[in-house]
Amino acid sequence: MTAGLLGQGLTTYVMLLLLGAVMTEPWRWAGVWLARDLDVESEVFRWVKAVSTALVAGLVARMVVFPIGALAEVAPWIRYAAFGAGLAVYVFAGRHILWGVLAGTATLLLATAWLGQ
Amino acid sequence: MAGSDGHAKAPAWTKGAGRRTAFLRGVMSAPTTPGLFILFFAMIGFGALARDAGLGAGEAVFITASLFQLPGQVALVDQFGRGATIAAAAFAVALTAIRLLPMTVVLMPYLRGSGLPRWLEYASVHFVAITAWVESLKRLPAIPVPLRLPFYFGFAGVLCVSTITATFVGYHVAGQVPPLVSAALLFLTPIYFVCSLVATATSSADYWAVLIGTVLGPILFLYLPGLDLLLTGLIGGTLAYFIGRWRRK
User: Fold this and answer.
1) Which of A39, A109, B91, B97 has the highest CB neighbour number within 10 Å of its CB?
2) How far apart are CA B45 and CA B237, in angstroms?
3) B241 vs A50, A98, A108: nearest CB
4) Do residues B120 and B100 both lie within one domain?
């Protein structure tokens, strides 16, 4: 069963390759090429790292503020509280990522189960 | 500091180790990272989404293996679900993939110098996506330069096999979990990513980038959808870089 846009059989996979990997992989290769003489102590590297960090942080914030699917059914304040709780536990409880993730997810589950939508 | 060669704190196994040992250590290190499990659950969510959009199980798995970047995979499947045109779907995926360029640039200095053929470096970046990126930035600096690429291939290889398995599992459990569980699965990715960003931050510029990016991302998404991620990175990152530079003085 496929969406009409994609056609049938082998055509589907060729289409997926063109729409997916062909749109994705060249960016990674360009990164290899651009990084060929880059030193991790250089100013350019510091800037690129800040840019990529801000970009991923923006993506993360978007997933929480404008979520898709079932997460969109959870009240915004619960999402923000869970996000803040997870981050706080990570930062202040010994910097263990697993604790941060568990605390955030537990906050989301418990707050939604007890306090509703 | 990510920039230091890290030989002082190199793990004990690296002493006298060859590439094979490094590869196996990479494989073995994968199950000890929370990222593997979080990515696994996130990909279960993707498998379910792909089924909702009307794709086949083989197609869902093919998307995971060939893109290996969850935001792009979601964008691609989402476009089918909405009946978008081919051009719109391609453009949406390309936009999510632009962020891979600066991420690759940041990771590459740690993957060079293995003495292995150059094409392997180009092959290795197929795994550049957030999980592999943050975990590599945490682990690679402490590993001696010649062993980094083999270690990375071992680690990323496990991630790749896991995501493919999870997509398949998610496809088949779709619609069988309560909505609250689905919501929790979707929440794992952002909370894991933000903790990871703080974990890989090595300078005040990086911390500022996390803060400014978090505030700027949703605002730009509202006003400039489509270009929001790219602009968040460029504006937020540049601002953070200058704040960091000013504070270094």
Assistant:
1) B97
2) 30
3) A50
4) yes
* Nearest CB partner across the interface for B213, out of A55, A95, A108: A55
Chain A contacts in chain B segment 154-183 (CB below 8 A): 179-180, 182-183
Number of domains chain A is built from: 1
pLDDT in tens, A26-82: 999 999 999 888 877 789 888 988 988 898 898 889 889 988 777 888 999 999 999
| A60 occurs within a structural domain | no
Contacts of A22 (CB under 8 A, 6+ apart): none
pTM of the predicted structure, to 2 decimals: 0.78
pLDDT in tens, A74-101: 999 999 999 999 999 999 988 888 899 8
State pLDDT tens for residues B56-105. Answer: 899 999 999 999 998 889 878 877 766 767 887 788 788 778 878 888 99
The ipTM of this complex is 0.83
Residue whose pair of structure tokens reads 């949703």 in the numeric block? B218
Same domain? B107 vs B83: yes
What residues have CB less than 8 Å from B109, skipping those under 6 apart? A35, A38, A39, A40, A45
Best residue in A10, A36, A60, A74 to probe B by mutation, most B CBs within 10 Å?
A60
Same domain, B126 and B224: no
Pick from B62, B170, B53: which is nearest to A19 by CA?
A: B62
The residues, ordered by sequence, that sit 6+ positions from B16 with a Cβ below 8 Å of its Cβ are none
Residue in B with minimal Cα distance to A2: B55
